[in-house]
Amino acid sequence: MSVIEALEQRRAGAKLGGGEKRIDAQHARGRLTARERIDLLLDKHSFEEMDMFVQHRSTEFGMENTKIPGDGVVTGWGTVNGRKVFVFAKDFTVFGGSLSETHAAKITKLQDMALKARAPIIGLYDAGGARIQEGVAALAGYSYVFRRVVQASGVIPQISVIMGP
Question: Of 72, 74, 75, 142, which Cα lies nearest the Cα of 110?
């Protein structure tokens, strides 16, 4: 297998999020996956995903045995009617979309990029809150995200869509 084939295989696995069983459960509830929502929102073929292979670093409560690429949030940029936007979508199929330390780092990286580019940011929320297994590290992640929301207020458009719990 070539390096390119191995990368494509790894990408395909990452795009499954929490796996086909959880995707089916999401669909059974009448809800779309994070990537399906992004595909509907953005101009066709404009999405460029970043940090697809990021995984949590938690070793408590057996979390070291359950690592899923992307860590419950899909981040990147694309266009809406030809205008550049930054977007993140929480992936309920991965740990219920719960926020971890690395999950928050993906979002804050995207927020920083949006602010620097002076482009809108859109957040699609479908999550159960903080990843309690990480305790304070996950809760601190919210403070980093909210700080950037305040910094961007009045500077760039910020749109949040709540689509789950």
Answer: 75
